[in-house]
Amino acid sequence: MDVVVNGKKVEFPEPITVAELLAQHHLHPTRVAVELNREILPRKEYNSAQIKSGDQIEIVTFVGGG
Amino acid sequence: MALSQTASELEKADPSLARYNRQMLWEPIGIPGQRKLRESRVLMVGCGALGTVLANTLARAGVGHLTIVDRDFIELNNLQRQVLFDERDIADQLPKAEAAKRKIAAINSAVDVEAVVADVNHTNIDQLATGKHLLLDGTDNFETRFLINDVSIKTGIPWIYGACISAMGLGMVIRPGITPCLRCIFETSPPPGMNPTCDTAGVLGPTVNLVASWQAMEAIKLLTGNIDTLSPFMFSFDMWDNRYQQLKVAKARELADCPACKHGNLEYLSGKFGGSTTTLCGRNAVQISQPAGGKIDFEHVAKNLSAVGKPSFNKFMLKCPISQGQGENAREYEITLFSDGRAIIKGTNDAATAKAIYAKYVGS
Fold it and tell me: Could you say which of A26, A31, A65, B257 has the lowest number of CB atoms within 10 Å?
């Protein structure tokens, strides 16, 4: 299954949820914003949101510098 | 159809605004917008990298009243990106807020600048925000941003989030009750030490300029009443990877169960969340207590700190000496970090200095 994560094509051998994808990247769910196919995904849906082939995912990590 | 005014017509119409000619030629601003800018009062929280670009841009644009708050002094390694400062300011040992005020006086003497050398915290932000039309984020840490978010919700004053590190940046316009607030998007800040800071991972000048220019443009739209053209997106970019994104965050307000703007729990403004400081008498040290945010991963923190010092740690604590400044301005500090996030900053009795060091090198 091919998915685009932050502009890069990524292949997943098995179905995966958004929460699992974040865990793979060691990202804490309360410190990221996730867009699934150009729509913001509510945090409460991270566990249930199944990523499908062809999906486009944008993960933005909270930045604190300045 | 009426033609728009020419440069010379604009100048005749109001000679006091002559210097803003090129800005007023842009019709959505014009003379009415320029007058609105002159009447505007803006609180600028932090005057480092983002803050100096913001202050420089807005003072030149003719924003009438700027209150600039910063707790820090200028160091040589600031000059690579903090556009209002120069070598002379370092020799004069000026606080950032005061140096910014002096520079702006030379750039645009019509701007009334109030320089406040202070740590912004839950005890003073309410008073600083009073009477302002806009709050601008030029801070270097998560905690103060949540504090600005809380005071914005309490007072109804909009604020513009901006943040950057290395070649990455983020920005968002927050109008309480209308758009999502910061906590609708990011509910909590990372535990201390988990995220790289500009002082451990570095930051490039163009990154700062892009974020702060974006914030300044949104500020000009907002202050001139061009509300319909405000960005409804979260602007996110990585200039090194050539990625520029606009996240559609507008729905986050109704979708998120936000503790702050939906439930009114202003935990940073009440002082429940956020660090507190205690000066350790006779020890030339300040203790910084952080509310429990999970156990600190010393290995991770040490890796970040190895860019600036030689950290050492055991399972109880991490120590790292930090040198700041050059020549007669040189200062030596030592950070001792405990696993619950508490830290002792040696080398100062001043709470604001200690908080600045914690924010720069550990991250808060």
Answer: A26
